Amino acid sequence: MSLAGMLLMGALAGCGNSTANDSKTDSDSSAAGSTASGTIDVVSREDGSGTRGAFIELFGIETKDASGNKTDNTTSDAIIANQTEVMMQNVQGDENAIGYASLGSMSDSVKAVKIDGAEATTENVLNGSYKISRPFNVATKSDLSAAAQDFLNYILSADGQKIISDNGYIPVDDKAQAYQAGSASGDVTVAGSSSVTPVMEKLKEAYEGVNKNVKVTVQESDSTTGMTSASEGTCDIGMASRDLTDEEKQNLTPTEIALDGIAVIVNPSNGIENLTSDQVKGIFTGEITDWADVQ
């Protein structure tokens, strides 16, 4: 009887270990391919953001009346991120979040979903299959200093355009000539879009390496602030991750320096891989509020 009891206890223990191991395996498998469930947490950029302006226009979230007046229909429940980095942090830290960011700013901390079956890549922006893209512009007044003009020449040169390409953006001129260093010296202030800022920092660093007589300061804010600062003369060059408005063009001359895609991003644990343009519009206008409705 004692031997039988020991055998029975051993069998029960074996069954218990098997159940625990099976549960762990099931749990790990579920986590690896899990899909967010429950209320969708929409994260959007602040008013004045060029990325927001381009995003709402491209997805039809912005509407116009007969007089041409624009209305941004982004849901009032959206969480507002005032910089690209803040957007990425919000989506990274929330399994149910959805947002958007510059393609060149992407990292493994978030996941870009396909839109209408097309992956968010520079190649697909170029071939037209991924249609969510916008220009990166700099804007200047007519009385540009010699130092600021020299920095702009560098950005548009083969050297500057290679830096743009190397950082995941699409250059506007693949036949540009090599930069020819001049005698310019002085200080240059560049201000505006947080989406353009990362690549502008790279351009600044490389430029100062070949022209040590010019010091470039990059100030991060948003596209509208950048255009206002350039127009008012508080910076030499404004940055915008969108086209300039007709009003802005009255005082400023835009120059396109790159093309960038806008990625629709979710938490890496979200199993959603593809969304249609209509689904994205529905989510950001508040018509779709639960992940179960986009499975």
What brief labels describe this structure?
295 residues, alpha/beta, D-Maltodextrin-Binding Protein, domain 2, 2 domains, 10 helices, 14 strands, disordered N terminus, Substrate-binding domain-containing protein, palmitate, transport, lipoprotein, signal
Can you walk through the features of this model?
Its main location: membrane. It is found in: Cell membrane. Part of the ABC transporter complex PstSACB involved in phosphate import. This is Substrate-binding domain-containing protein. InterPro entries: PBP_domain (IPR024370), Phosphate_ABC_transporter (IPR050811). The structure is a single chain. With 295 residues, this protein is of the alpha/beta class. The chain folds into two domains: 41-133 and 263-294, D-Maltodextrin-Binding Protein, domain 2 (3-Layer(aba) Sandwich), CATH 3.40.190.10; 135-260, D-Maltodextrin-Binding Protein, domain 2 (3-Layer(aba) Sandwich), CATH 3.40.190. It has ten helices and 14 strands. It has helices at 2-32, 50-58, 84-92, 122-127, 146-156, 158-166, 197-210, 223-232, 246-249, 277-285, and strands at 41-45, 62-64, 70-72, 79-81, 97-102, 111-112, 114-115, 133-140, 170-171, 186-193, 214-221, 237-240, 253-266, 274-275. The strands form three sheets. Strands 1, 4, 5, 6, 8, 9, 10, 11, 12 and 13 form a ten-stranded mixed beta sheet that branches. Strands 2-3 form a two-stranded antiparallel sheet. Strand 10 (186-193), helix 7 and strand 11 form a beta-alpha-beta unit. The radius of gyration is 25 Å and the shape is globular. The N and C termini lie far apart (57 Å).
